[in-house]
Amino acid sequence: MSTTTDLPVQDISSEVLIEKYAKGGEQTPDELRERVARALAAAEKPAERAKWAAAFLDAQQRGFVPAGRIMSAAGTELSATLINCFVQPVGDSIATPEDGVPGIYTALTEAAETMRRGGGVGYDFSRIRPAGAWVGSTRSHASGPISYMRVFDRSCETVESAGSRRGAQMGVLRCDHPDIEAFIHAKDEGDLRNFNISIGVTDAFMEAVQADGVVELAHKAQPSAEQIAAGAYQRGDGQWVYRKVRARELWDQVMRSTYDHAEPGVLFLDRINADNNLHYCETIAATNPCAEQPLPPYGCCCLGSIDLTRFVRDPFSPRPQFDEAGFAEVVAVATRMLDNVLDVTPWPLPAQAQEAGNKRRVGLGFTGLGDALVMLNLRYDMQAARDMASRISEVMRDAAYAASSDLAAERGSFPLFNADLYLSGGSFASRLPQGLKDKIRAQGLRNSHLLSIAPTGTISLAFADNASNGIEPAFSWTYTRKKRLPQTEGGGFKEYAVEDHAWRLYRHLFGADAPLSDAFVTALELSAADHAAMVAAVAPYVDTSISKTVNVPADYPYEDFQDLYIQAWQSKLKGLATYRPNSVLGSVLSVTPEVKQPEPLRAEVDGTNQRLRVERLPNAVVASLRWPSRPDMPGGNPAWSYLIQHPHGDFALFIGELPLEGPDAGLFGRNLPFEVWVNGAEQPRGLSALAKTLSMDLRTNDAAWLRLKLDALATVAEERAFEMPMPPSGEKRLFPGVVAATAAVIRWRCEQLGALADGGATPVVDAMFSRYEPRTGTSGTLAWAVDVDNPATNEQFTLTLKEVVLPTPDGGTVTRPCAMGFSGNYPKALDGLARLLSLDMRVMDPGWIAMKLRKLLNVGEPLGHFMAPVPSLNGERRQQVWPSTVAYVARLVIHRYAMLGILDEAGQPLADMGLLQAPAPKLAASAGALQVQAGKPCPECGNATMIHKDGCDFCTACGYVGQCG
After folding, report:
1. Cα 754 from Cα 25, distance rounded (Å)
2. For residues 86 and 347, is the Cβ–Cβ distance under 8 A?
3. Quick count: other Cβ atoms within 10 Å of Cβ 296?
4. Where would I find the beta strands (DSSP E) of 346-505?
5. What confidence tier does 613 reach under pLDDT thresholds 50, 70, 90?
6. HSE of 30 in the Cβ direction (CA atoms, 13 Å)?
7. What is the pLDDT of residue 591?
8. Residue 647 — very low, low, confident or very high, per pLDDT cuts 50/70/90?
């Protein structure tokens, strides 16, 4: 029984084929395949080109799908590369090469040219000296790798790649780089949108994580005098140790960020280099953007995938079979095709052509594994399925290496081939079957590397009937793809039914009402460990790497997630990436994808009066403060204290705690943190107000909300960064300012008490109309601003409120503040307060921000009181004494809310929106159906519903698929 059995072509497949890959008048897959076959056969001897063109067409018809760049550009007049991705070396100087590595801006130019010609680019930024390090040539201080990554990010955003798409990028930083913590959190607030990021992790670091040891963050660049005075020192090997950290504490930041923000991924560098067939002549520090190809400087990935569903005989029957012989035949021809790609492709840079010529790397893999297993009646998370995947991978390995050896006998080995070195040293090649090793010694080898499991994205839609992507299980069995139509066709959306190949074939064979077999399981029904186990089953047979995104649902427990990367390292994997749906910068989730505008947060243009506008709101589900005010405790309460040591003096931080009783307390009882305050003459001005508002956040029944608040404070920067001892052992950490340092101590204590544990209700977070600050377009937006002058403290600054238009239940609109900020001369701790209150402003119930502002009206400061006008709606002119700058700022914000008709001048809501309303129960998702999930804004439908799935961008609202294969 054929696997296609007269299945008609899906409309979405034809649409993607024509839109993304077809050239000229091509309309069918075979017309396109013929073009590619002829183009690659041009590398053959003239007398044999027709024969090989026919063989190359046959291989494609039997299931081989060259990568997207090959399918779209081979045989055309485009000067676009046929290679998907590259690694670009980046040095430490601005422009001067060092040890053969180009300077930063030379690397930027080379990367821009590579992306312009159609290639994605990966980088290792670890050579760039840390922020604050000494730059002797200019007598200045370095800005660090993150700042330069922003330059690369904007360049990628600007340069349009061949084929009208933006280039993809991967940024890597070593785990022992002094700026590693800033790198871990670089994307927390939506920065570096054109990057995937991964940490290059060493075995020594992972061993320190397991042993709870200390690691040195070091670099060859000399620290500044200030950094040396703070404890930096030079090791015997010449490296400068900037500071030491507990490995486990750093690792916890990695896992927490990955859980909350889906990045960074991890690359196990020692494993990558130990397994490298060319361990004797290269060192690898980075990968291509989807991480299936660890590559040396200027290395490339020449990719192709074979659709495994095409080799399943008698699918779903009691005795289905996988055609190993037919599969091996296609592997051999596909290997030759990819080798030919290296000879016919245009190269963006001469260094890339030289690197490819010396080693002739290719990356043949498979796609459709998840569907093939279903068709073989094997459930993805069972051992029998992993055994089958291992066997398929073994057949692919043996056939590819045998074919490459035969090519070497015909065409010669790759120039850097040395049989003795290649087949020894513990590399992948040293573990090949003895028969293959003997053949390679006798005939040589054409390609240094041959295998890679890549994401397939749109090529699966266009050429494989939407078979599951790469090594992944199916993400959903069916969904509706809503594609935006151009204005010339009337605008709006056109809908396509998109069906998974295995699901579609099953329905075709057994009827629409037939119950699905037990083998039908989707990605989100599997545990993270089951995802990783499949990679571990296949990895021993793949000489480069595997693109694998472990997709888990939003409510996946952190306890089950936190050891995932450690398990991957213990399983000897080369890396791993995860995705858990999350809200991102500027996101407002519109579950109905038929939006009229491309962005759910936008600037509405009305002459010069432009307002940010939110099209839809979530339901109001703000549930419960434990106590609206400080609880009454006549007998007192315990408090935990810590000495905050900052450059301008020391002060005491106190965290008030309340002993829990009942079943929540546990066997030995535990304390609940419920307030924060600071004490000491050297505390920064404004910090006590920040502590006061954070105390109210501690009293919520929402750990996610508290994490969001502490995250917002973690990057508040002041005039100069400083190092401060951290509990429990006093090891120093670098902080951008005293607000960030104080927040880190609060976070540590809350984690100790279990107050940040996942898995509970998220009533406050659920009630936000936007988790992150709504962003404007280039036309900007109106904002409300007012000047503040406190002569007692010599402060003069401007308070600014950004505002947004929200819909109301009656069909009207209301204008609301959504963010606040300061400019001028003001206490820098107020930046932290502004971040906290900005989040409060985006809780839909205005009673929430009203409660926070009223609490600040009585904040006093010694010698900080002053006389200032009382804001008034009726024009009344009078002045009064204000106890502090913060109190006056709170009064001004209340006044603006009163001007907008939301609060009265006393700070009380004019309409009750349900502060104590209980959250509604979540509806269970139907099995196998595509569920809308929060993510990045989609370029197609505008909803903030684009997640990272199977190595590709994928919109869960409209079905848009990013090009990644």
Report:
1. 63
2. no
3. 18
4. 363-367, 478-484, 493-499
5. low
6. 5
7. 29
8. confident
In this structure, are residues 935 and 956 in contact, taking their beta carbons and an 8 Å threshold?
yes
**Helices and strands (H, E) in the chain, number of each type:** 29, 38
Which domains are assigned to the chain? 1-84+302-465+503-547 (3.20.70.20), 85-287 (3.20.70.20), 605-610+761-931 (no CATH), 639-759 (no CATH)
Q: Which tokens belong to 160? A: 């349009």
Maximum average pLDDT range among 140-144, 237-241, 873-877: 237-241
Token reading at 696: 């109210």
Rounded to whole angstroms, how far apart are CA atoms 861 and 621?
Answer: 36
Q: Where are the beta strands (DSSP E) in 291-373?
A: 294-295, 300-301, 303-307, 312-313, 321-322, 363-367
Query: Secondary structure of the chain: what % helix, strand, coil (to 5)?
Result: 35, 20, 45
Which H/E stretch holds residue 691? helix 687-698
Contacts of 449 (CB under 8 A, 6+ apart): 277, 278, 359, 361, 362, 363, 543, 544
Angle (CA) 818-884-675 rounded to 5° is 70
pTM here?
Answer: 0.69
For residue 842, what is the enclosing H or E element?
Answer: none
- Asked whether the beta carbons of 772 and 587 are under 8 A apart, the reply is yes
Amino acid in position 23: K
What are the tokens at 645? 């040591």
DSSP string of 724-754?
EEETTTTEEEEESSHHHHHHHHHHHHHHHTT
Tokens representing residue 301 in the block: 């990935």
- Tell which residue, 245, 447, 253, 415, has the closest CA to residue 342: 447
91, 97 in Cβ contact below 8 A? yes
Q: Which residue from 818, 813, 837 is spatially nearest to 775, judged by alpha carbons?
A: 818
Q: How far apart are the first and last CA of the chain?
A: 29
Those residues with Cβ within 8 angstroms of residue 299's Cβ, 6 or more apart along the chain or in another chain: 86, 87, 293, 355, 356, 359, 361
Query: pLDDT over 70 for what percent of the chain?
Result: 89
Our CA dihedral for 70, 73, 77, 83, rounded to 10 degrees, sits at -60
404: which residues sit within 8 A by CB, 6+ positions away?
Answer: 335, 339, 445, 446, 447, 450
Contact residues for 250 (Cβ-Cβ < 8 A; gap 6+): 175, 180, 181, 184, 215
CB of 81 closer than 8 Å to CB of 69 = yes
Report which residue type is found at 382: M
**Inter-residue long-range contacts of 510-513, CB under 8 Å, 24+ positions, other chains counted:** 510/316
- Interacting residues of 359 by C-beta distance below 8 A, sequence separation 6+: 278, 299, 414, 415, 416, 447, 448, 449
C-alpha gyration radius of the chain: 30
Q: How far apart are CA 287 and CA 832, in angstroms?
A: 37
785 forms beta bridges with: 800
More confident site: 892 or 681: 892
The winner for highest mean pLDDT among 187-201, 258-272, 868-882 is 258-272
d(CA 591, CA 944): 9
CA-to-CA dists, residue 910 to 840, 907, 960, angstroms: 17, 9, 42
Instruction: State both tokens at 637.
Output: 């309460």
Query: Residue holding tokens 């089953």?
Result: 537
Catalytic residue numbers, as ranges:
288, 290, 292
